[in-house]
Amino acid sequence: MSESTAPQNPVGDAGETSRRFAGRTVLMSGGSRGIGLAIALQLAAGGANIALLAKTATAHPSLEGTVYTAAEQIRATGAKALPIVGDVRNDEDVQGAVDATVAEFGGIDIVVNNASAIDLSTTDAVSMKRYDLMQDINARGTFLLSKLSLDALRASDNAHILTLSPPLNLDPKWAGANLAYTMAKYGMSLTTLGLAEELREDGIAVNSLWPATIINTAAIRNLPGGEKIIAGARQDTIVSDAAAAILARPAAECTGNFFIDEDVLREEGVSDFTGYSMGAPEDRLVPDMFL
């Protein structure tokens, strides 16, 4: 692919490339809004069927979007959508989502572990309820959805598991700054590390993806000082473009990686990322955590 100076959709150009996911089925945790929804819409535009497992049956007072409004947006691309109300912390809900997706679309080709909870409190300040929430959604939820999808993924000819989690950076500053959150996110990343090795002979690709900079999401905007932080963010489409590039690759040749969004897009021939910016120059963007 030639280098792009206006990266609107560098991995989804018109023609054959834009239908690269035709006939594929995606099961995603979360996806009602933010990065998850951006990925779902990108894959849907490429022809994928999208099943979303999310709790958001009704709108949240401070968070826009529900699993149903997300499904409507997906259908507007011409793709098929299956909204599933459920909690990734609940074994029966996750098994039900896997079963419903297979029944509706005939199988599962891609699992995206997108659901995540964040609390950046120090150890003194974080409540154990919030600690348990992050562990249950982030680490356990990722493990559970991946585990229960394995039989369906083994039947696919190009199966992928993609988890939105950071590289395992053991610099003590991350644990020291946000121990509870770091443990929960690294639990997701350890799942990638272990499953990639465990499933190598099955031909199932297992990778993680993380942004190089903070991304304009409701989760960031709702943090203390979040609206100011957003000025140094990128749009969520940089993550969705990177995700699509990864998920289109042959599974047997692409596993066990901790990808960074802009590095993936450089491999796709993109050299100018200014089109993803919220307005700040590249040298004023805020790096994301764990890098």
Detailed description of the structure:
With 291 residues, the protein is of the alpha/beta class. 40% of the residues lie in helices and 11% in strands. The protein has 10 helices and 7 strands. Helix 2 (67-76) links the parallel strand 2 (49-54) and strand 3 (81-85). The radius of gyration is 18 Å and the shape is globular.
N→C terminal distance = 27 Å
The SS-based structural class is alpha/beta
Instruction: Name the helicity range.
Output: 25-40%
CATH superfamily: NAD(P)-binding Rossmann-like Domain
Low-confidence stretches: 1-16
Q: Which sequence of strands runs across the widest sheet?
A: 3-2-1-4-5-6-7
Helices and strands, in order, run as EHEHEHEHEHHEHHHEH
Major sheet summary line: 7 strands, parallel
CATH architecture: 3-Layer(aba) Sandwich
CATH class: Alpha Beta
Name the shape in a single word.
globular
Quote the beta fraction: 5-15%
Task: List how many beta strands DSSP finds.
Answer: 7
Question: Rounded to an integer, what's the Rg over CA atoms?
Answer: 18 Å
Mean pLDDT: 92
Output the number of helix runs.
10
The CATH topology assignment is Rossmann fold
Query: Looking at the chains present, what oligomeric state does this protein adopt?
Result: single chain
Total number of domains: 1
